[in-house]
Amino acid sequence: MQIAETQEIGTLIALQNKMVLQSSRSSSTQKIIIPDGNVSCIQSGGHVLVTLSKSTASKVEAYDVDKLLGRLVDNGSLPL
Fold this sequence. Notes:
Blueprint: E1 2-3, E2 19-22, E3 30-35, E4 39-44, E5 47-52, E6 60-66, E7 71-73
Antiparallel strand pairs: 1-2, 2-3, 3-6, 4-5, 6-7
């Protein structure tokens, strides 16, 4: 895996603290890494920006990206 040149995955557009990784063999295979820190939202023009505090994050979560459906695939850590 390597850091994807484009950090957009078609969802979580407002999220500022994420890192998208892609397979070095296939650009269609992607993962996203998201810290579990405190959430803050601010309005910026007609949009909302969502930030996750890195200083309060105790871990990060990695999710597979389903590019066909534009969604994250649960890694078992998402609440029901």
